[in-house]
Amino acid sequence: MATAQSTRTTSITVEVDDMTYTDVVEPRMLLVQYLRERLGKTGTLVGCDTTNCGACTVHLDGQSVKSCTMFAVQADGHAVTTIEGLAQGGELHPMQKAFHEKHALQCGFCTPGMIMQSIDLIKEHPDPDEHTVRDGLEGNLCRCTGYQNIVAAVQEAARTTRESAVSTTEEGAA
Amino acid sequence: MTVTEIGSPRRRKEDQRLITGRTRYTDNIVLPGMLHLAMVRSPFAHATITAIDTHDATSSPGVVAVLTGRDVADEQGSLPCAWPITPDQKAPPHPAIAVDHVAFAGEVVACVIARSAAEARDAIELIDIDYDELPVVLDLEEALTDATLAHPDLGTNKSATWVFDSAEAGTGDDVAQVLAASELVLERTYLQQRLIPAFMEPRSTVVDPTGEQITMWSATQVPHLLRLMLALTLSIPEGKVRVVAPDVGGGFGGKLQVTPEEVITMLAARRTGKPCKYTETRSESLMAAHHGRGQVQRLKLGATREGIVTGLSVDLLADMGAYLGLVTPGVPILGAFMYNSIYKFAAYRFSCTNLFTNKAWTDAYRGAGRPEATFAIERLMDDLAHELDMDPVELRRKNWIKHEEFPFSTIACLEYDSGNYEAATDRALELFGYDDLCAERDRRRAAGDRVQLGIGVSTFTEMCGLAPSRVLGALSYAAGGWEHAQVRVLPTGAVEVVTGVSGHGQGHETAWSQIVADRLGVPFDSIEVLHGDTQTSQKGLDTYGSRSLVVGGMAVVAAADKVIEKARTVAAHLLEASTDDIEFAEGRFSVRGTDQGLALGEIAFATFSAHNLPDGFEPSLDSDATFDPENFSFPHGTHLAAMEVDTETGEVTLRKYVCVDDIGNVINPMIVDGQVHGGLVQGIAQALFEEAVHDESGTLVSGSFVDYLVPSAADLPSFTTDRTVTPSTTNALGVKGVGEAGTIASTPAIVNGVLDAIRHLGVQDIAMPCSPHRVWKALQDGASKGLGAEEPVPDRVAPEQDAGPMNSSGNLPTGDFQ
Ligand code: FES
Ligand code: FES
After folding, report:
1. Torsion B332-B337-B341-B343 (CA) sign
2. Cα gap B693→B557, rounded to integer Å
């Protein structure tokens, strides 16, 4: 019964985009609802109710998760990064830049999830071929772009990330 | 004027907010004291409602009110249909909340208004509704018999029959006579399955009734039409309604609607006096947002043995579903003008019967009527080529309008202004490596390979830029087809462009800035494009039918030109010269033959201060323009698909796809490529993946993304896209429209490719989507006629692709040809 559920609440402490929040939530509250409705992190979007679309993808301790597949209470004690926390010091994340540069978005609704998933993807595959990118994005649906420019953007971001890693190492060595 | 912006792949202005999550989709909007709605939907496709008990729901925690159809019967009116295609068209009343009769599963029967969305959803479980089930009619052929009625009160399932006959119109001969005299007549029946637009953003509406004007934010493509229709439907003075389409997450025709949910949210806000929000779940969206396609196409094509098409007869049954939405009846009629496509026929007849069934209503979906028409004619052309043992490209060449024959008056009464089918086709064949692939196909066929190769060909043209108002009038559409724009020069010299079109992913903010930057000679970044709010964009007819650039972009050009003329008068006055001696180039007005001049920004400031203006000059450069196109525009293209079919499993793989589109001049090639890619995938999805499936009781079986197979990146290869450029001659920009092109041509290219691979195994036709199971089944049926393979049915529902063929198509340059 709804009434019984809504009376049981839990206190959670979650770090979201470098800020720490302590909140009392219902156990049935999904992480994505917590982000959107409690924290106003509306950059993270909801596109389905069967965990198929990936629009809600965020990072939990640096790993991509669909935030509609977990409860807010499960994020207790963890760090969440959303699309809103990616840009650092006014600098866009390389993946954000690549999406812009390669026209990897149209309506933008899949974009936050797509970008978060893609960051995870190139962490695991620093130099992904087309097949690897396409497979790695299988859980994120886009209805606008036909994916071609998304693939290009992910490969572009992987390239710039590799290059900046090389130059950082060189700088470190020098 | 030096052209710098038009034609350049400018990165999009709108991206910044979208890639950082600084978005304003409707569901992101939160207002003080906002209430939330949840809908109770009929589980039955056809029933009468005998009793509704809302008592427990009303007293559930957080619930403010429960609305039933009876509660709002006096105020909810009937949802609008703006396109009565015949004077005697029949339609049932269309209440936002059903009162005593439901005609499809998913129809709203009650609405809970509560303090939170969760409380509203909890309470809908507590509403008790008694239904008396009625027999359902789902199939079109069955609907035609009227044996079971979708709406018993209507007495028939037939809404209207619309006919075009070339003999009657005087554009050609009588098709019956021509077919009777033809050496060859192909008779075919093709099915256009129902599709679901499946935009990624579920529909959402927020209504704020506080303040003098009631404001609605909605995930809509058509804020202006919505405002007008809300005023008419609910008898609210139009001036008291403001509609805003904030960021909108895709539409594809699916958000070209006035929805029950919008009306209900409006009613709820007016009742409670509080802001109200309704956001649908994906399941609700798939079930109850309008569907697309849904046609039976009965076709007869006559031809000579040499492959000259003599005439075409089209007899359609079109599925309206349970109600008529905003433009439902007109969708198949838009196809009527396109069955003849790029070809010259001597005789043509089109007849369409619109039928009611107990399913969600259909309406516009990307292409709207034109993909269906293109599919039919392009399938027929391939069937004919096969019948005559002729190369399918050669057959098309024999029949298409040659480039020197433009402008060309078609048998369907349209005047094609320009085109060059030869050039686009030649380029496509070259990029595709047509001859090599055909040779490979023949080798594999001769060797009896397990995986066969097929080459799919499709050409197309479409009518874009909806539309000349007088044409819409002749087709009984209630509104016109013009578009409005305003260009304002601010005192700082910055420019605001107001447009009546309402983008939702198309990149208008960028493209319009490029157009105005060139026209006025102001920097791209000094231009702000405003749209999608009836309070700032006071006039407009919104975004659909590949019209935004062709009609809306032209309105922007016209408004900018008026600004130049006003500024010229001020410049002449300030420079003490005659207006005839003032030249305008690159943002500067100068006196001919001198170095004296003023920048547009300087004139803007002088006009703002208004201290020293010509006598009687109205102190403003701001200008409005309303552009009514004189004709449609006619993009065209040639698409080629290499399809591999595993004859043992039925698995289909798209190995290579090349398209060369001619969309006239291009404002932003990067945006154009994106539109083509997305369009292709939606068309390919119809051919291979998507179908709205109902069980025999009328329940949608493909009611989630688990079953409704919107393709993912892993299901697709990359495409080779290219262009030829034959400018439109009927608008100053020479543009034609690109939003629907990919969707229109790709479906037949794919299916033709699949059939080409396995026709020799006795397969004549495969209903879409060509799933592995269907292909396998078709091969079995072919085999039972003495050819083909015999294997158990594979249980996969979607083709899975391996790396090899997918990568092999991704290595050609895309879109950099101009
Ligand atoms: S909202 Fe669709 S996967 Fe989470
Ligand atoms: S950009 Fe619209 S859904 Fe991906």
Report:
1. positive
2. 46
Residues B229 and B356 in one domain: no
Residues of B within 8 A of A9 (CB-CB) are none
Cα-to-centroid distance, A7 and ligand 1 (Å):
27
ipTM: 0.95
Q: How many domains does chain B have?
A: 3
The ligand with the least distance to the CA atom of B674 is 2
B226, B106: one domain: yes
Q: Is A56 in the pocket of ligand 1 (CB under 6 A)?
A: yes
Ligand 2 near A142 CB (within 6 A): yes
* CA distances from residue A81 to A59, A133, B18, B403 in whole angstroms, order as listed: 5, 22, 17, 56
- Closest ligand by atom to A146 CA: 2
Structure confidence by residue, pLDDT tens digits, B494-547: 999 999 999 999 999 999 999 999 999 999 999 999 999 999 999 999 999 889
Alpha helices in B182-321 (DSSP H): 223-234, 260-272, 282-288
- The verdict on A148 touching B (C-beta cutoff 8 Å) is yes
Which of these, B467, B514, B719, B241, lies nearest to A149 by C-alpha position? Answer: B719
Cα four-point dihedral sign A158, A163, A167, A170: positive
B181 C-beta neighbours (distance < 10 Å), count: 13
Is B677's CB within 8 Å of A146's CB? yes
B517 within a domain of the structure (yes/no)? yes
Residues B389 and B503 in one domain: no
Q: How far is the CA of A45 from the centre of ligand 1 (A)?
A: 8
- How far apart (Å, rounded) are the C-alpha atoms in residues B533 and B499? 10
Mean pLDDT of B109-128: 97
> Are the CB atoms for B416 and B430 separated by under 8 Å?
no
CATH of A94-173 given 1.25.40.10, 3.90.1150.200, 1.10.150.240, 1.10.150.120: 1.10.150.120
Half-sphere exposure of B560 (CA within 13 A, CB side): 26
Task: State mean pLDDT over B718-743.
Answer: 94
Instruction: Please say if the pLDDT value at position B800 is more than 50.
Output: no
The CATH number given to A10-85 is 3.10.20.30
Q: Is residue B179 part of a domain?
A: no
Is the Cβ pair B505, A144 closer than 8 Å?
yes
Q: Which CATH number characterizes residue B216's domain?
A: 3.90.1170.50
User: Does A86 contact chain B (CB < 8 Å)?
Assistant: yes
d(CA B97, CA B108): 5
pTM over the 0.90 mark? yes
pLDDT tens digits for A143-159?
999 999 999 999 999 99
The CATH number for B707's domain is 3.30.365.10
Instruction: Return the ∠ at Cα B496 (arms to B490 and B502), rounded to 5°.
Output: 160
Domain residue limits, chain A: 10-85, 94-173
Give the residue numbers spanning the domain of B65. 31-134+200-250+255-288
